[in-house]
Amino acid sequence: MTTNPGESRGTGTKPGQQWSTRPRPASAAALAAPTAVAPRTACTACGHATGVEPCCQFCGQVLFLPRGIALSTAGLRFGGHLLEAALFVCTLGIGWLIWAFVVFQHGQTPAKQLLHMRVVHITRAGTARWGRMFFREFIAKGIIGVLAAYTLLIPYFWLLWDRNRQELWDKMATTLVVTDRADQLRPPSADRPAQADTRTR
Ligand SMILES: [Zn+2]
């Protein structure tokens, strides 16, 4: 196929006509959609209006988890620390470590398993996994422990005034500690190993 050298391909624009470079105005709906503020919702447990926090400020219900799973109380958290220490001593450390490495995958430590508590990952909206638990229990707590040694142990009491009862290591790991008495967060594969667990992959 040959082209006529005298023929020029026009662009379709007439002399003096220019394509507008201004962006087309978006519709009101398209502009509003990405910046729309999430509507205020009610707590599933107590009905109070919820704000930006991941848990209800009235009853402690964690908003991204099933009804009935609330933040653990400060007293239970403190009791958990004492039980953890007792278990560590009774099992000569090594037993606690093996036990912990098994239950880390369910967001628990030995004491948390006995007290029906779990660590949940806020970003994932589910139980913390093994790697996050390892980071929380050894690295984050180690760093906060050094900090606390130079600050009158004040960081250890952080959950007493925190809106989500987080310790500083919870903030580092983006986690909350919840009480799950009915074991609602137990993964389906925990007691039925034959059944493939595709939901949490
Ligand atoms: Zn509530």
UniProtKB/TrEMBL annotation:
Pfam families: RDD
Bilayer disposition of the protein: Multi-pass membrane protein
Biased composition (Polar residues): 1-20
Domain RDD as annotated: residue spans: 79-173
Transmembrane regions listed in the UniProt entry: 85-104, 138-161
Keywords in alphabetical order: Cell membrane, Membrane, Transmembrane, Transmembrane helix
Cellular component terms (Gene Ontology): plasma membrane
Top-level taxon: Bacteria
Location of the protein in the cell: Cell membrane
Annotated InterPro entries: Pra-immunoreactive, RDD
Disordered as annotated region, ranges: 1-25
Protein's UniProt name: RDD family protein
Organism listed in the record: Streptomyces dangxiongensis
